Structures are given as structure tokens and as C-alpha cells.
Amino acid sequence: MEANKKLEDCTGAHILDELCTGKRNQNSGRPPRIDYKNSMLAIQTKFDLFMNNHTNGAHANKHIQERLNMFEETVFVSMIPDAGLKDDDSFERTVQYMKYLPQREKDSVDDWIEQTVNENASKPSTHYSTFNSGKYRDLIGIREVRGRIQSRWLKAFNMTLPTIKSNLARLLAKYNLEYDEKVKEYVQSNPAQVRTAYLTYVNEFRRKIAFYAAYKSEIEGHFPHAKHGTSYEEVERDFQTHWSRWRPLTWPAYLNANELKKHACAQSSEDQSLHKLLDSKLLGSSHFDRLQKLFAYMVLALQHDELTADEIATIESLLYGGLSCSANMDKFVRDMMRRLVRKTFAVGIAWLTQMYTYLLDTFREAVTSLLLSENNYAYLKNHSPFLKIVELDYHRKIRTMTRRAIYAVRDTRFAYSAYAHYDLTARLKKLSFYIPVEISHELYLEKVPNVFVKDDDKSKTTANNSSEYRQVTIGEIFANIEAPRLISFIFGSESYLTTKRDQKSGSHHPSARQTVRELYTATCGKLLYDIAAHFNAHVVIGINEFDQIEPYSPRSITTLLTGMSDFQIARMADIDFEKVLKSLDHYKCIIGELTEASILLNKVSQQLHNYATNTYAELDQFEKRFENSVKKAMDQLDHRRKFIHPIASELSSSGSYRSQIRLAGESNIQEDDEEAYEIQVLLDSTDEAMCKAHLEYIYQRHDNEDLRAGLLEGESLDQDSLKQTATEYQRLFSSSSMNSAGFVSLDYTNKRSGKTSY
Predict the structure, then answer these.
(1) 511 and 498 in contact (C-beta within 8 Å)?
(2) Is 653 helix (H, G, I), strand (E, B) or coil?
């Protein structure tokens, strides 16, 4: 505002007052600032006109005081019209004008006070008052105005300075950390170091797989039992809903988790073993033991339909072998046995194979997640081709172990179903009496109903009403039966099928049915033990020894990695040196700018506090120190990446980098080398989605082969879904009793359709 204007004409000042006190624009939504004058500095310009209009000291003092009363903190400034500055003056003359302007203004104001106002006051005829220099002189002049502005700016600056410094320090720390991360990425882009990291990861992966399978204390801390243990229901749910390789099969013996729970609830209240088996929270290889027990439960609980007379007559055939026209019961027993074993185990082994593969795959997922969460290997998360190659290598190894078990089970099943083993049951029973009773199996402590022996420990008197006899245990019976002679194991039974074969009455049918049931039950029991033994020997032991040093193989992942060139490693890791170097330069530029800002901020703060003492020489010295400080900071950044690896500059700067990378992708794989081709596809697929899709294709093809690997001639995975026969499940409970044929008569029977999808 202008100092020579009347206060009522200061429209801008009045509008400002009304806005701040809420008299104007009341709907702005902002609270009024009644104390706004405490934060305001009023600068009255054109004081030279004020001086021209005021020769009376009383009037000058009054009008200045009125302005102070109205605006509170107020200063006055004027321009000197006779300073001699012209529009066409040179820059140097303008600088000189600005340099001496404050002094000329001071001289002008002093002349006005002394030679005009005070001189008029000294004249007797005027009776004017003198100018109150003690109160008002310090409010007039360019220096005073500049000092007030500078003081307010410095106050605000000092209040904000800690925050600015803190923000600069925070940003410097942030970008230094990001720079270090890029330097670390730069280090990790060294193909030699990448290869070492890959090999270390592979060794640690195998080691952790073995630890996880055995659930050793070395890995327990990473997988607490309370958090990572899973029940059978949780295993089955994840197997069917989240495992992408799950394939629904139709197996007559299958019982899902809910059905198993129902039968567990129907057991005797004294026997909760099945309940405990289902609800147990397990980790590692203990899953395989539970899986084998539940598989055995499903198999033994399956009861096939009894054959009708016409089915028996059909299977007997006529003149099979060309020896006799009588009923060929040997053919019937052989073919019926093979049929029952096929229906029980053909698809069942495929289901068991899927479950083993799924559990082993969860081992890999858990260990991979653990390793990639550790600092040493976290950066490998983006190395999709390498991780998928490790996954493929693991898949091949466990597939080899599983296939050995499948082939062994298939051959064993073939051996037991190729012909009728009439002597199997007799030999098993004889063998049970031949084996010494030394291991205290719980079975031996069970008492035999209705069989008593004299209790020698009891007193001969019956004064205490205690019985002189007690029930005998199974172990005591075994111990008192004389072991069979060795010769009895060589020769077979004297009879096995009735010789009376009246086709009119079918009198031989009951004997044939009972014979088939007897042989089938014995064969199932023997096969279940053999299946568990084969999977344990080939798979469970193999996964527990997964960390053992494997013999040299040109197909191993270790051989593959050690034989790859630096350019092939760089290509597989998708290393882009140019991108990394550009990122380093980017962060270096940001850190440089922040460093400059921090140094300048400190100097500005110093200058503002020591404004009167600053000289041009000091400013020149500061500029040199500033340049040196910034250069030193940049040199330190360069030093942090200077000796990382010599190949980086060569690869990133030379035009041969891209061509070498392209050459690294070329291969001389033979058309029939399927395993090498699978690896090469992963090496060529730098995108994670492509790697995943290729692995899924491999899994699908291998799984189809593995599920069929256990099938014999005439068997199919769809055999039970294409043509169903009625099936009946009868479950074993403690209340069951043996009938005369050696089979179980049950109080609880669960009948279900033979068509079961899982």
C-alpha cells in the first residue's frame, strides 16, 4: 500500500481485514484468523510522496502512528527519483545504482527530517513539532524493510530447517540403499557368481528336501509342527482342489475322508486307531505310512459280489486245454483270482501313485518357498528358467524312484495273478508257526474266545471264588504248536478243489467260491505288504537320502550348470547389464542432486546467520569446497561398483553382447534327445508363464505314462467307469466274528455303488 494515501482509501487492506476476520466470504468453510496481524508485515511504499506532503512534524508523527495502529508492524520505503537511472543504462550502471540506492534513500530521509521538518519546527512563527526520530526513524528505509523481510524469512526458514534436513537425510539414505541394491544386483549379474549361486542352491535344495522328509531338528524351526502339520482330510482336500496335476479316477475300493470318518465313528469305542490315524497332524515321510495304512484299509474293506452260477459256468469254459469236457475249475479259479486282483489293485495302484507324487511335490514346494525366503537366495525368485530346471530335475528323480516301485508292484501282482497259488494260504499258516515268537507283538496278547488253560499261579482252593482256568492268548498257542518240518514247505496241499462237479446241481460252486475267497484274501494281504515294501524301498528311503552325493551323470543339473558358458548362464538368468548400469547411473544422479542440495542448504543457513560478514572471497572458497564435496561423493559411488567384475563392462559396452547371447541360445540337440530338449525349452523361455506351461505339459505327459505303468494286459484306468459291476463294502470292527469259511461276518455293513470318482 502507498504511504501517502488516506487510510480509508486503502481498499486492499480493508478487504484483507474482512476476509481474515470472517466479515466477507463467510461460506468459505475456513475458520477466521482474528490474529492475522501478528503474522503480517505492512510495507508502505512511496514514502517520498509522504515526505513531500508532510512538512509539519506533528502531522507526520500522527499519520505514521495511525498506520501503526491500523496495521501494527509497519515499515516505510521510497524510491529516489533523482538517482539518475535511465532505461538504456548498461547492466554495470544498473548494478551500481542498486548498490548505492539504500544509502541515497537514507540520505534523502535524513535531509527531510533535519532540513524540512525539524527546521520548520525551529521557526518561532510556526510552532511545529519536531519529527519523533527515536520512535519512527528505524521504520523508514530500504535497509529496514529488507531487514524485516529477511528476519521473517529467516525465522520461517529456521523453523523448517530441521524438517528439510531430515527429509534430505532420509532421501539420501533411501537412495543410497537402493543404489546398494542395484550394486548387489550388479554383483549378482556376474555369470560366474550366478553359476556358483545356482550350484549352491541346488545342493541346499537337496539337503533341505532330505531334512524335510525326515523332519530333522535342523528344519523343524522353519516348519513348526503346530502350524504345518496336516490331517488326512486336509491332504485330500488340497490334493483334489489345489494340485493342478490331480486326475479323477474311478476305483471301487476308494473311500474319501468323510466316508473313512463315518466308519471310524462306527468302530468300537475302545478302538479309536482309525480316528487317530485320520486326525493326526503329520509332516514329512510320516504321511507315507498313513497313506499305506489307509490304502490297506480300503483294499481289505472291499467285498466283491458273489458270482452267480451262470458266471461260473461261463468262466469255466469248455475244453480249455483240450483235456476233458468236465468243468474246468482250475481255469475258473485262476481267471477269477486275476479278475478280483485286477479290480482291486489296477486303478488302486494308480491312485496310490498319484498320492505319492502329490506328497513329494508338496515337499518341493515347501523347501523352495523356504529357500527363496532366505536372504542368500531371495534374488533368485525372478530366475524362472533356473528354478523350473531345478523343479524338472527333482521331478525326474522322484519319477525314477516311483517308477521303480510301480514296476516292482506290477511284476509282483502279475506273479500272483498269472496262475492260481493254491498252496499260498497253507504256506502262510505254516510259516506263522515256524517263525519264533520273540517280538512282543500286541496280537500275541489277545485272548482266544472259548479256549481255556489251567492257571498254575492260582491256588488249588477256590476260597476267593477265583476261577482255576483262564483264557489262552494267541501267543501261547503259537508257542505251543510244534514248528512244521521243512519238507512241508516244499510239497503242496493234498487237495484244494472238490472232485464232485455235478453241473446239474452245481454242487461244486460253493467250494469254488470259498476257494477263490481264501486265495484272494491271502493274495491281498501278501500284495499289500509287498506294495508297502516296494514303495518304502524305492521312494521313501530315496527321498530320505535325497542329499546323498549322486554319481556323475551327463544328465544331472550339476553337470549342466558347470558345462554352460558365461553367456549361456547370462542368457538363462536373463541378465541385462545395460539396464543395471542405467539404473546405477540414475540413482547416482539422484544422490548427487540430493548431496548438492544438502551442502547448499547448510551454506545458505550459515550465510543467513552471518550475512553481514560474508565476503565475495568466502563465497568463492565455498564454491570450490562445494564442487570438491560433490565430486568426492560421486567418486565414492563409483568406487562401490568399480571392481565388481571385469566382464560387465566388456559385455555391456561391446556390440558383441547381444550376438553372444543369441549364439548362447543356439543348441545342437539331437531330435531323439527328449530330456535335453525339455531343458533347452526352459532355457529358451525367459518368461515365467512359458516355463510353467512347458512344465505342465511335461507333467501331463509323464503322469499319463506313470498312471498306466502299473497296468497289466487287459487293464485300463477306465475299466471301472466303463462297465460297472455291483460292489459291496463290509467293514471290519471289533464286534465281527469269523464264519466257517474264514471270512468276516459283520454287524455293520456299508453298501455303495462301485462307481466312485475321486
Answers:
(1) yes
(2) helix
For 78, 205, 366, 392, 560, the CA distances from 696, given in Å and listed in that order, are 85, 21, 19, 10, 22
Residue 252 in contact with residue 339, Cβ under 8 Å? Answer: no
* Under 8 Å between Cβ of 727 and 252: yes
Identity of the amino acid at 419:
Y
CB contact at 8 A, 188 and 194: yes
431-466: per-residue pLDDT in tens?
777 777 677 777 778 888 888 887 766 555 454 555
Question: What is residue 461's three-state secondary structure?
Answer: coil
CA atoms of 121 and 141, how far apart (whole Å)? 23
Q: Residue 521 burial by CB count (10 A; 0-12/13-18/19+): exposed, middle or buried?
A: middle
* Maximum distance among all Cα pairs of the chain, rounded to whole angstroms: 169
Q: Which three cell numbers stand for residue 426?
A: 497253507
Comparing 18 with 203, which gets the higher pLDDT?
Answer: 203
For residues 363 and 407, give the distance between their C-alpha atoms in angstroms, rounded to a whole number: 24
What is the rounded distance in angstroms from the CA atom of residue 737 to the CA atom of residue 412? Answer: 31
Let me know if 675 is exposed, middle or buried by CB neighbors in 10 A (0-12, 13-18, 19+).
exposed
How far is Cα 316 from Cα 332, in angstroms, rounded to an integer?
Answer: 5
Strands (E), 245-312: 302-304
Cβ contact 327:315 at 8 Å:
no
Question: Cell triple for residue 181?
Answer: 541394491
Task: Fill in the amino acid letter for 497.
Answer: L
> Residue 236, exposed/middle/buried by CB under 10 A (0-12, 13-18, 19+)?
buried
Report the C-alpha gap between 153 and 611 in whole angstroms: 13
Distance CA 86, CA 84 (A): 6
What does the alpha-carbon distance between residue 517 and residue 498 come to, in Å, rounded to a whole number?
Answer: 15
Nearest 5°: the CA angle 519, 521, 527 is 95
User: 543: Cβ–Cβ under 8 A, 6 or more apart, which residues?
Assistant: 209, 210, 213, 285, 360, 363, 398, 401
Q: Which long-range contacts (CB under 8 A, 24 or more apart) does 410-416 make?
A: 410/349, 410/709, 410/710, 410/711, 410/712, 412/527, 412/530, 412/531, 412/534, 413/341, 413/345, 413/349, 413/527, 413/710, 413/712, 414/712, 416/341, 416/523, 416/526, 416/527
Of the candidates 522, 547, 334, 558, the one whose C-alpha atom is nearest the C-alpha of residue 431 is 522
Provide the pLDDT confidence category of residue 319 given band limits of 50, 70 and 90: low
Q: Which of 140-144, 680-684, 723-727 has the lowest mean pLDDT?
A: 723-727
- Amino acid residing at 182: K
Contact predicate 581/615, CB 8 Å:
no
* Cell numbers given for 676: 535335453
**8 A C-beta contact, residue 74 and residue 50:** no
Return phi, psi of residue 74, to 5°. Answer: -140, 140
Residue 90: Cβ-neighbour burial (10 angstroms; 0-12, 13-18, 19+) = exposed
Q: Which residue is associated with the grid cell 524493510?
A: 145
Q: What is the mean pLDDT of residues 141-167?
A: 83
Three-state SS for 27?
helix
Beta bridge partners of 750: 729
**Can you tell me the distance from the alpha carbon of 85 to that of 94, in angstroms, rounded to the nearest whole number?**
7
Which three three-digit cell numbers place residue 409? 508292484
Q: How many CA atoms lie within 13 A of 155 on its CB side?
A: 7
Q: What is the pLDDT of residue 609?
A: 65
The Cα 515–Cα 351 span in angstroms is: 29
What pTM value is reported for the model? Answer: 0.66
Measured from the Cβ of residue 321, the count of other Cβ atoms closer than 10 Å reads: 9
